[in-house]
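Milestone 3.1: sequence recovery, worked example.
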């Protein structure tokens, strides 16, 4: 049915590179994870110590994944590290401030901030550097080698894993013909009403 209703959905055409993260029986080491995938980055924020200061969703969207060491975060593209997050911090803005040459900043964040950067308060370089303890690594390779693709990420990356999609079916009626396992495997998550489901990648339902 997914293929019939949304034949051009990237998940339908090719599930592997579409942002879907399948169930794994063995937890891979961090060196094997593709942190250029937003859903993978978001999954690293389990037990994040500062959810009230800066949200995992905003950090993952800005290209950062958690290093599981306090509030240390690392960019998947330029390898820059930011820590000591404060309530006034906006991940996109901090990423651009400290690593303006990061390819993710150049190709994604700059476009996202183009209408709002002018309203952001400025900070001195000394204040920002001393507070965040920034580590900037040199970026090697072109954008293709870095795995950057514009506008091809999933619409709902929080449902990028089979586990997350299956969890969304907690209130799914057992009287319905379709099973949560089959629907989740097809890329669908449950909206919580009737039999309404949507694809995590194209948002079709």
């Amino acid at each position: 049915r997914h293929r019939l209703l949304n034949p051009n959905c990237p998940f339908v055409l090719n599930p592997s590179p579409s942002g879907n993260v399948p169930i794994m029986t063995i937890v891979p080491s961090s060196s094997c994870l593709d942190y250029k995938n937003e859903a993978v980055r978001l999954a690293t924020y389990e037990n994040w110590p500062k959810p009230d200061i800066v949200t995992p969703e905003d950090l993952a969207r800005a290209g950062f994944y958690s290093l599981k060491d306090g509030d240390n975060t690392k960019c998947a593209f330029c390898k820059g590290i930011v820590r000591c997050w404060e309530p006034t911090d906006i991940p996109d803005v901090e990423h651009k401030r400290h690593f303006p040459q990061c390819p993710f900043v150049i190709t994604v964040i700059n476009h996202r901030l183009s209408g709002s950067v002018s309203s952001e308060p400025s900070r001195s370089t000394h204040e920002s550097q001393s507070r965040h303890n920034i580590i900037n690594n040199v970026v090697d390779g072109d954008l293709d080698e870095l795995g950057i693709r514009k506008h091809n990420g999933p619409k709902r990356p929080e449902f990028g894993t089979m586990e997350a999609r299956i969890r969304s079916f907690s209130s799914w009626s057992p009287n319905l013909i379709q099973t949560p396992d089959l629907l989740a495997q097809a890329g669908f998550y449950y909206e919580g009403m009737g039999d309404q489901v949507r694809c995590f990648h194209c948002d079709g339902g």
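The CA atoms of residues 42 and 60 lie 5 Å apart. The two ends are 10 Å apart (CA to CA).
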